[in-house]
Write a structure and sequence with these properties.
The complex is a heterotrimer. Chain B is of the alpha/beta class. Helices cover 26% and strands 23% of the residues of chain B. Chain B has a single domain, classed as Rossmann fold, CATH 3.40.50. The N and C termini of chain C lie far apart (59 Å).
């Protein structure tokens, strides 16, 4: 199988090490990974602001970049959700349908497609899992607390097999961090309050690291952590799954 | 005419017909003990429950549990504890002083401790609400597990009014602190008549 | 122009109050979770409720006509109101013809939506809201901030002072038992001396022509049975086909709203008692417009439980008054743009689209999807604001051309690395008010990958 790696625009820009971890993690599974160099963005930021019509050019570029791979994998639940759910506004060609069906977030790709839940990683720290909303309720990477269904979580399943890790419980297992794209700017006061509350939940439970499937959530939380000089760090889940003790 | 305008707008706005799902409510039945669940739920909603063997035992228990009540209405044949005379002209105002009212329930619902009463169980619709203490008698064989079964029973109700009563009146409008006894009855007691 | 973010910012100036409000509502969400976990087949009940409502909307005219016929057979007078003003005029004319001067009213968001109280008071009719929470906000001269718990934003000390002022109670530090008992005495007087009672309608059953009203306080029944005139206001969407469907909705409603298995009183009004009259006013007021919209019609399935408000992390941290509409929170944000797109254009953006509302909704309204869809309508109708529109259009153009994107990406990182911090903070605007910017890396992922490829 060949896999196309999609790196969200802000990870490309600000967090290349997360993209590198995602690439290395996938290559460790023995699959051939290509990174189409003309990729840009999934179109979520403009579409979520109401400019879905204007985003079609972005969607078409995405489709062009990834039309010849078996799977598209990305370290971003929200981008993957956007491709699967919102690319219905462009003509549904064979390529578009193929892409919408075969775009996966990293954790669900590992567990559901490769059937793997052990990455042979080592990360001896207390870690809190922040269940990013688009991944959780959009892609159903886990059972959301609102639903009366059997509990499951691909990210948790993978983390539990990391050597030395201690996963902490939280008071609110899946409350939103408050990033929400432009919401972080337009509703700044509420956005910050939501972020502060999430961080405090992790601190209360003595987490040393907050992890998530979405770097956007972590970028927002890290911004608050650094401003308030709080004793906690963020790491994208692929960094943990790709890690060995230094 | 508003009616015609609204109906016309609906006809042009509504989507294509969607099927009405078939209800297979047996799917919701559980193995739970109906009487135990009913008792547990009455208590959790702030009511009291007591098992008795006959209506005369009810009479006795009311006298011992509510020794100070003066204005009493009994809508139950065979339990003559009433002290207030009622007729068709009795107004709500005259009933305002009611201390205790005794009514017979037609059906009890285990999943939520609710009891169904209707016009035939009360002389005046205000009675179950305006009284300070509400007492209901219910036969154990009239207990059902859930609201699906209860609605089957009330579907052909001839009466012009009925109500599911679950516990005494209550409110939590002041900082979410629960207070039992809001605008209607301050307490609810259910006597289950069981012949076993 | 209503703007949620401005009101929300003000609300957040008092962090302690936000914590208190958030905690109170989260507590109700948790009660809902516990209640849902006790019901075998909860998710199936939700699916059934959703399908019953969807079917009903697709045959709404037929069911309304059936309901009207059966209700009239039961001796009920039926009236139809195209809009809020028509509703108010109808209610007033019924009251006027009965010489009714004192009205008691149980909770009805529809009458709130129509501004009934204010309308009647101007005509010299006394209107007393008898639900305790509604009475509190009525005395405070505020709108309700939540559809089920209207006074959830009020602290007990504030309520104590209100009651001292209007009910002449003794200072009690907000003792809820004392205040509730005093309210009971006060409201009893009102019930006994009222000429008429107005209620809302939780469910209207087409099969039997009966309506169902759910309360915990018993205040709907206290009013209706004490007065010779009962007027019930209902939106067209309150119809359900049969009594058997009532079972599904009653199992979901209170559990979703407050975590109770059922409200203390679920009253079934089929015909008035002898020598009394019962009227039902069926109201459109924009609902047929919402019905005509394929993307937004399922919002009419709403059974007004409020679960979406309790779970919404934004509602909990901004309060119902920030929304500026009768119905706040997630459901309010998909109903209000239909009423006035311009006025309520900030509401679909008062959300991170987290989807929690959709997962708690007992009738499975896809609330967060509709919020997204309203954003498209708002942008299309040019209600987004000029600078946002330009910024988004430019971004979309850059992001759809790889070469342009890469050029911009390269330049911006270089710039950000070398610009003095105070300038990059100014550019980043609101991001940096309470957050640090991410550190600018030495290379983008693309640069790293290309270098790696050359090895």
């Amino acid at each position: 199988m060949n896999v196309g790696l999609f790196i969200p625009c802000y990870i490309n820009q600000f967090y290349p090490h997360v993209g590198i971890a995602a690439l290395e993690l996938l290559e460790k599974q023995g699959i051939s990974v290509v990174y189409p160099r003309t990729q840009t963005c999934c179109g979520q930021p403009t579409a979520n602001s109401g400019f879905e019509a204007e985003s079609r050019g972005i969607y078409k570029l995405f489709v062009n970049n990834f039309q010849s791979v078996d799977y598209i994998v990305s370290p971003s639940g929200s981008c993957v959700h956007h491709v699967r759910d919102h690319y219905d506004t462009i003509e549904q060609t064979g390529n578009v349908e193929h892409i919408r069906k075969n775009t996966y977030e990293v954790c669900e790709f590992l567990v559901k497609i490769l059937g793997k839940d052990n990455c042979n990683a080592e990360f001896p720290y207390r870690v809190g899992l922040h269940q990013s909303c688009h991944g959780l309720r959009g892609l159903r990477l886990g059972a959301s607390s609102e639903l009366q269904i059997d509990p499951f979580s691909y990210p948790s399943q993978l983390l539990k097999n990391v050597k030395g890790i201690q996963l902490v419980d939280l008071h609110r297992s899946d409350e939103c961090c408050g990033f929400g794209g432009t919401f972080a700017i337009t509703e700044e006061a509420v956005s910050i309050k939501m972020g502060v509350d999430r961080i405090h939940d992790h601190l209360l439970h003595h987490a040393e690291v907050i992890t998530a499937t979405d770097m956007s959530c972590l970028m927002h939380l890290e911004g608050i952590i650094k401003r308030r000089k709080l004793p906690i760090q963020v790491k994208h889940i692929v960094e943990i799954l790709n890690s060995t003790v230094q | 005419m508003s009616r015609d305008l609204i109906l016309k707008k609906i006809r042009s706005a509504k989507p294509d017909k969607m099927d009405l799902p078939v209800l297979n409510v047996h799917r919701f039945k559980t193995e739970s003990n109906v009487k135990e669940t009913f008792a547990k739920n009455i208590e959790s909603v702030g009511g009291k429950i007591c098992t008795v063997t006959s209506k005369s035992e009810v009479l006795m228990r009311i006298k011992t549990t509510f020794p100070d009540v003066k204005e009493v209405v009994s809508c139950v044949e065979g339990v003559d504890i009433g002290t207030v005379a009622l007729d068709k002209k009795t107004s709500a105002k005259e009933l305002e002083k009611l201390d205790l009212a005794l009514l017979e329930g037609q059906c009890g619902v285990a999943e939520n401790g609710a009891v169904w009463i209707s016009d035939k169980n009360m002389f005046h619709r205000s009675i179950p609400f305006i009284t300070s203490h509400l007492v209901l008698i219910l036969s154990q064989e009239h207990l059902v597990e859930n609201m699906h079964e209860a609605c089957e029973r009330i579907a052909h109700c001839d009466d012009g009014y009925g109500v599911f009563i679950s516990g005494p009146s209550k409110t939590a409008d002041i900082e979410q602190s629960l207070v039992i006894g809001a605008q209607a009855a301050l307490s609810l007691t259910v006597y289950i008549i069981s012949n076993s | 122009m209503n703007n949620h973010s401005i009101s929300a910012e003000k609300f957040n100036r008092n962090e302690e109050h936000v914590n208190w409000h958030d905690t109170a509502l989260w507590f109700v969400r948790q009660k809902r979770d516990r209640a849902a976990s006790t019901v075998e087949g909860w998710e199936e009940l939700r699916s059934l409720a959703s399908a019953i409502k969807a079917h009903t909307l697709s045959a709404l005219d037929e069911y309304l006509v059936q309901f009207e016929q059966n209700a009239m057979k039961n001796g009920i007078y039926i009236h139809w109101a195209a809009n809020a003003n028509a509703h108010n005029e109808i209610v007033y004319s019924i009251l006027h013809s009965h010489k009714a001067k004192k009205l008691v009213k149980s909770k009805s968001m529809l009458t709130e939506e129509c501004g009934l109280n204010h309308f009647l008071e101007k005509k010299g009719i006394e209107v007393i809201d008898t639900d305790l929470g509604e009475r509190i906000v009525q005395l405070a001269q505020e709108p309700p901030s939540h559809i089920v718990m209207p006074a959830i934003h009020k602290k007990r000390e504030e309520i104590d002072e209100l009651f001292q002022q209007h009910l002449h109670t003794q200072p009690s530090g907000g003792d809820e038992v004392y205040l509730t008992r005093e309210a009971r005495k006060h409201l009893r007087e009102k019930f006994i001396s009222a000429d008429a009672a107005v209620t809302g309608v939780n469910f209207a059953i087409a099969e039997t022509g009966a309506i169902v009203v759910c309360t915990n306080e018993g205040n709907a029944d206290m009013g209706v049975h004490a007065t010779p005139l009962h007027i019930a206001s209902m939106g067209i969407e309150k119809i359900i086909p049969k009594v058997e469907h009532l079972g599904i909705f009653l199992r979901l409603l209170a559990r979703s709203a407050t975590g109770q298995p059922i409200t203390a009183y679920t009253s079934y009004y089929k015909s008035p008692r002898p020598n009394a009259e019962m009227h039902i006013v069926i109201v459109d007021n924009g609902r047929t417009d919402q019905l005509a919209e394929p993307n937004f019609r399922s919002a009419l399935k709403c059974i007004r439980c409020g679960a979406c408000m309790n779970t919404c992390p934004v509602y909990r941290r901004s309060g119902g008054h920030s929304y500026g509409y009768t119905i706040p929170g997630p459901i309010g944000s998909i109903l209000s743009p239909n009423i006035d797109l311009k006025k309520y254009s900030s509401l679909p953006f008062a959300s991170t689209l987290c989807g929690s509302c959709t997962d708690v909704c007992p009738v499975k309204i896809d609330i967060h999807s509709q919020l997204y869809q309203w954003r498209q309508v708002i942008a299309e109708k040019k209600e987004s604001g000029f600078s946002k529109r330009i910024a988004m259009k430019i971004s979309a153009k850059i992001l759809s051309r790889a070469k342009t994107f890469h050029a911009v990406s390269k330049i911006s990182n270089t710039l950000l690395r070398f610009l003095p911090k105070y300038i990059s903070k100014a550019i980043a605007g609101k991001w940096t008010k309470q957050r640090e910017l991410p550190e600018i890396p030495q290379y983008t992922f693309l640069e790293w990958y290309e270098k790696r490829r050359k090895r």
